[in-house]
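Memo to structure team: turn this sequence into structure tokens by end of day. - J.P.
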Amino acid sequence: MAQPADGRASDPEIKSLASKIEKAQDPEITTMRAWLKSWDKPESGSAHGMDHGSGDMEGMDHSGMAGMMSKKDMAGLEAAKGTDFDKKFARMLIAHHEGAINMAEDEQSKGRNATAKELAGVIIKAQTAEIEQMKALLERL
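Reply from structure team:
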């Protein structure tokens, strides 16, 4: 979701946040994909939705998973520019992060891998802070 912000967002804080999110989530996604591969699990919604809509999975519709945007949602975001983009991005990313937090909390309570549970804690902390930042941004926009 963060990729379209480059060239579409008008608010400097949205641009900065999108860049920060992309840089933080790329290594997380790489780590989770490696875990899935080592556990012989697919990269799909059936594998706890660890994809976050990035990489070679972009064409898939994960809208049935908590916080995942539909193709229609993403098309609307990609068609927006300026303040319209900024507001849509913040709203959609809040929902996306809330879904990720729910999945991370589920991992912490039901997971069996200590490293995965640790990453879930990192995700909860970071994305909770980003939700608060985006809520403040929406009030300002």
